[in-house]
Amino acid sequence: MYKSAFLISFLMIFIILSSCYNDQNTYGEELVGASIRSVFSDSTTIKVSSVLIDSLETSGLEIVLAGQYKHPVWGSVFASGYIAYNRPSYNTDADGIVMMDSIVLYLKRSGYSIGDTTQIQKYNIHLLTEKIILNDNGYLYNKNTVSYDPEPLGSYTYNPKSTGSELMEIRLSDELGQDLLDKLHRRDMAVSSDRFEDYFKGIVIIPDEEVSQSLLAFSVADTSAALSLRYKAADALGTQIEILFTPNTTTQFNHIGYDPTGTIIEPYVNEEEIQSELLENKGFIMGGVGWYAKLEIPYLNNLMQFGEKVTITQATLIIYPEPGTYSDYNSLPENIYLYIADENNVITNAVTDYLGEEVQSGVLIKDDTYDANTYYYFDVTDFMQQELGAFGVNKHNLQLVFGSDDYTKTIKNMTFSNKDGHNPIVLQLTYKIYESY
Questions:
Q1: CA-to-CA distance for 146 and 81, rounded, in angstroms?
Q2: Whose CA is closest to 217, among 146, 140, 160, 144?
């Protein structure tokens, strides 16, 4: 009788103590007697807007972007590459006679492209009439331009698919080549080391808008994007000589233009932030031009009304790219990122990996059979835990962005829908409700 009473008492104490342990198996006095429910939800409202970055640095990237691409939703993007050149060494005896042969521009693909590269591409090369000068902060941007002669120095038409990574040679005006050779041979002060870029200001590579249907990247280095001046010395052997004008990689930059005429964004082209409801429930991010997406969770604190205490245990953000906005010619970006920003859109942190050490890259899950099953996902548990219960200036939003290289060296893009779109963005939440404590 005594042993039975002792056993019953022990079991009752064990049950009471067990109910006071939280998920980490530690004793939690505040949860004594609590009724706990675990709830899963995928209907949390996410407010989506697209925001335009004022300017993107495009100088000193050692890459030329040239061509145009028409996006099926957002309009046309076109890019031109501006290049200044260093004075070459010239050692031919000034007393000798030289005969100009040709001047050519070397171009070599860097690998990136967007648009239909099976179609013919055409570029026009123009002489700059204004010297390239960096801004006071040492950069030039996607919106910068420099004046140039409207008459082309030369043109080049080719099929990008067949060219691959081969070095292309674009012949330029013999008049330009002769002028440079004459001045170098005479040791003219106009082409001295300290005056050269004031005299020969460089070139710009511009796509022919009536022909070009793709936008390509070309490397800028000692031999790529260089000018080759070829001439012969009037000696007994008729020796052919080549001198290279290497590009100034510091001042080289790309201008990237954007024309949304006839698209859903046209009425709001002068706006820096556009709500997705105004864009047929779409949000988007785009490199080169500089769009990113702002994500807000306005009603998150409503969860706190469901019980005495609510805690978020898991949060996953799923983003479905809009079918029809990407293709083999406009492939989805492999990497997108989430940053945390305050009410003024000033970044304060990043959504990191589970160790909290690296910025988390959205994982792209591809479905080559059904586009609707292609998506990116992020683990946003830490962010949601910190936001639950935040009010006023303490609330934050998420910014869906590319890495810096994708913004400044590509026209990569991704279009998705808000909660009312065809494939809506989803925030999956698992949370615990404590009825009393």
A1: 10
A2: 160
Compute CA distances 56 → 52, 216, 253, 429, whole Å: 10, 18, 11, 35
Highest mean pLDDT of the ranges 148-162, 195-209, 338-352: 195-209
Within 13 A of 369's CA, how many CA atoms are on the CB side?
0
Q: Taking Cα atoms as reference points, which of 175, 115, 141 lies closest to residue 54?
A: 141
Short-list 61, 170, 63, 165, CA closest to 117: 165
3-class DSSP state for residue 273? strand
Question: In which band, very low, low, confident or very high, does the pLDDT at 166 lie, cut at 50, 70 and 90?
Answer: confident
**Listed residue (125, 122, 174) closest to 149, CA to CA:** 125
Specify the residue for token string 């995928």. 42
End-to-end CA distance of the chain: 36
Which of 86, 95, 119 has the alpha carbon at shortest distance from 212?
119
Question: Would you state the structure tokens that stand for residue 263, as one six-digit string?
Answer: 């698209």
Question: Buried b / exposed e across 224-243, counting CB within 10 Å, b at 16+?
Answer: bbbbbbebebeeeeeeeeeb
Contact 145, 81 (CB under 8 A): no
153 contacts: CB under 8 Å, gap ≥ 6: 125, 126, 127, 172, 173, 176, 203
In this prediction, residue 161 has a pLDDT band, given cuts at 50, 70 and 90, of confident
Residue whose token pair is 């019953």 = 8
Q: What angle do CA 282, 421, 418 make, to 5 degrees?
A: 55
pTM of the model: 0.86
Contact, 398 vs 339, CB < 8 A? yes
- The alpha carbon of residue 36 and the mean position of all alpha carbons in its chain are separated, in whole angstroms, by 45
User: What is the C-alpha separation between 174 and 176, in angstroms, rounded?
Assistant: 5
Give bridge partners of residue 316 from the DSSP assignment. Answer: 379, 428
For residue 249, the one-letter residue type is T
Instruction: Look up residue 80 and give its two tokens.
Output: 């031109």
DSSP assignment of 224-263:
TT-EEEEEEE-STT--EEEEEE-B-TTT-EEEEEEE-TTS
